[in-house]
Amino acid sequence: MQNKLRMPSKETILAKIKTNRPNLWPLPDVPIFETSVTDKKKLFIQILERGGSKVHCIDDSSQIHQVITTHFPENNRMVSTLPLLEGMEGITTLHPDFYEGTEVAIIEGLIGVAENGALWVTENELGKVRVLPFIAQHLVMVISAKNIVGTMHEAYKILGLPTTEGFGVFIAGPSKTADIEQSLVIGAQGARSLLVIVTP
Amino acid sequence: MMPHAQKAAIFNKDEARTDWHDASLWMVRKKRDFAVSEIPEWEFLREFASDIKMHTLSKLDDYLESFEKAAIQNGAIVHWAADAKEHNDIVLSILNKHQAKKMVKSKSMLTEECHLNEFLEHHNIEVIDSDLGERIIQMLNEPPSHIVLPAIHLKKEEIGELFHRELHTEKGATDPQYLTEAARHHLREKFHTAQVALTGVNFGIAETGEIVVCTNEGNADMGVHLTPVQIHSMGIEKLIPRRSDLAVFTRLLARSATGQPVTVFTSHHRNPKPAGEMHIILVDNGRTEQLGKPDFRSSLKCIRCGACMNTCPIYRRSGGHSYETTIPGPIGSILTPGIDLKKHGQLPFASTLCGSCTDVCPVKIDIHTQLYKWRQIVSEAGLPEGGNKTMMSIMGSGLASPSFFHRLGNIGRKLLRLFPGKERFLSFTVWTKDRDLPKAPVESFREWYAKQTKDAQ
Amino acid sequence: MDQFYPQAAIATYKLLLKLGCDVAYPEGQTCCGQPLANAGNEAASKGSYLHFVTMFEKYDYIVAPSGSCVYHVRHHFDTLEQTEAVKKVRAKTLDLTEFLLDVLQISSLPAKYPHKVGLHQSCHGLRGLHLGTSSELVNKPVASKLHELLSMVEGLTLVELDRKDECCGFGGTFSVKEPDISVKMGKDRIRDHFSKGAEVITAGDMSCLMHLEGIISRQNIPIKVIHIAEILNTYEI
Question: Nearest CB to B355: which of C2, C127, C184?
Answer without folding.
Answer: C127
